[in-house]
Amino acid sequence: MMKGVSFFVTVAILALASSLASAYDPSPLQDFCVAINDIKSGVFVNGKFCKDPAMVSANDFFFSGLNIPGNTGNKVGSNVTLVNVDKLAGLNTLGISLARLDFAPYGLNPPHTHPRGTELLVVIEGTLLVGFVTSNPNKLFTKVLNKGDVFVFPIGLIHFQFNIGETAALAFAGLSSQNPGVITIANAVFGSVPPINPDVLIKAFQLDKNVVEYLQKAFTPN
């Protein structure tokens, strides 16, 4: 009898340990989520609050407009139209989003990262030079893509897309998060608000103080 009880207790403990070992925190869906004790003053959760299923309609899963080219009349000559959970509520908890990328001739989607999502890109029109850089020791993987080609950018790694053709280019990208986020490297480093201490940037990039001040002025939002 005691052997039977001991065996049952052992199995129960192993089962509990297994369930604890397989449990994990969900991936964050925003840059941070500071804990509070008073839920009445909480405004953000890891994701969105859910709509009553009885009130859901087909429009909650629908978005229109990706047939419209984005405005590439800017300094970098590119435009990204992102369809994430903020624009398509039905994406909530599904772990996916979509983007349209338009490029003027020689337009660039500057080096950037998506802290919460892997990106899978397909070229629809034009020719793109794409690439990503690994974590230290910073190896570059790069490829020229033509119509119909596909390239994947692993989560969190710095990557870019550059139209090397004389005509406009178009691509679509799927991202493995309802809110992948984006950090454009130059804007983050030289255009943060408030600005990073110039001495930090001078030493980090081995640049002259005048160059750092020029770059901070160029990238700081108006």
TrEMBL record:
InterPro entries: Cupin_1, Germin, Germin_Mn-BS, RmlC-like_jellyroll, RmlC_Cupin_sf
GO terms, molecular function: manganese ion binding
Positions of oxalate binding: 109, 114, 119
Keywords: Apoplast, Disulfide bond, Glycoprotein, Manganese, Metal-binding, Secreted, Signal
PROSITE patterns: GERMIN (PS00725)
Cupin type-1 domain mapped to chain residues: 64-213
Binding-site list for Mn(2+): 112, 114, 119, 159
S-S bridge residues: 33-50
One Gene Ontology cellular component: apoplast
Compartments where located: Secreted, Extracellular space, Apoplast
Record keyword Plastid present: no
Top-level taxon of the source organism: Eukaryota
PANTHER family in the cross-refs: GERMIN-LIKE PROTEIN SUBFAMILY 3 MEMBER 3
UniProt-recorded name of the protein: Germin-like protein
Source lineage: Eukaryota, Viridiplantae, Streptophyta, Embryophyta, Tracheophyta
